[in-house]
Amino acid sequence: MATVRVQRDDFDAGREAAALAGGRRGVGAVTSFVGYCRDEGGTLAALELEHYPGMAEAEMARVAAEAEARWPLLGVTILHRYGRIEPGEQIVLVAVASAHRGEAFAAAEMLMDYLKTRAPFWKRAIRADGTVEGWVDAKETDDALAARWEAAGR
Amino acid sequence: MKLIYFAWVRERVGKSEEELDPPPEVSTVGELIVWLKGRGEGYAYAFEKAATVRAALDRVHVRHSAAIAGAKEIAFFPPMTGG
């Protein structure tokens, strides 16, 4: 059963990954991925993330369940922040525990690809000169990255 | 039913949520969009490129061909940009 949280506050990625291993003797691998806010060459002051409360958690849980159905995982944690996030700050965490590294790496990558295209979050950029830019456009490359997991089958 | 809007769909419609009762001939998400577009400039602007707007019924992603009968909550939003 995955742990899924949507929160305004920052998180401790190391502690979350350690909790997945948590002294469980069958765990042979834990991978964790952290997505950060970047400053885009000094032009970005912050991101403002909006989300759909309730559906965000539900969709993250569905994505986690798909990974758990696909690989023999021993634990999944997905955290996603919302609100104002500045360059250098963490936005998202995916951590996966399994017996062997292969499924832990693969599941973490699939989880991130699916989160990008399915979890209901939207970013707006606030520029260094104070202007509030429009909403960040979704990338077709993200759709392609998510689609390759469908093509790969089970 | 409750309609909820996010990101630029919310800004263009001019509200984050509302209760509406579409007429019975409006049976799919796509037909609901067409009906909404007739409700005013903001709606027409929000759904001007209807194919790009995503929908969720009771917090599950659906296509525009999905039937809306029985849904309590319908959300419209742009393609997602989280992660």
Can you say what the CATH homologous superfamily of chain B is?
A: Beta-grasp domain
Report Rg of chain A.
16 Å
**Separation, N- and C-terminal Cα atoms of chain B:** 30 Å
| Uncertain stretches of 5 or more adjacent residues of chain B | none
Any low-confidence stretches of chain A, pLDDT <50, length ≥5?
A: none
Per CATH, the class of chain A reads: Alpha Beta
> What's the quaternary structure here?
heterodimer
Number of domains of chain A: 1
Q: Tell how many strands the DSSP assignment of chain A holds.
A: 8
CATH architecture of chain B: Roll
What does this structure look like?
The complex is a heterodimer of chains A (154) and B (83). With 154 residues, chain A is an alpha+beta fold. Helix content of chain A is 36%, strand content 34%. Chain A has one domain: Alpha-Beta Complex (Aldehyde Oxidoreductase, domain 3), CATH 3.90.1170.40. Chain A contains 4 helices and 8 strands. In chain A, strands 1-4-6-2 form a 4-stranded mixed β-sheet, with helices on both faces. Chain A has a 4-stranded antiparallel β-sheet with strand order 5-3-7-8, with no helix packed on it. In chain A, a hairpin with a 4-residue loop joins strand 7 (121-127) and strand 8. With 83 residues, chain B is of the alpha+beta class. Chain B has a single domain, classed as Roll (Ubiquitin-like (UB roll)), CATH 3.10.20.30. In chain B, a hairpin with a 2-residue loop joins strand 3 and strand 4 (60-62). The longest helix of chain B is centred in the middle third of the chain and has 9 residues, at 29-37. Classes of the chains: A alpha+beta (154), B alpha+beta (83). At the A-B interface, strand 3, helix 2, helix 3 and strand 7 of A face loops of B.
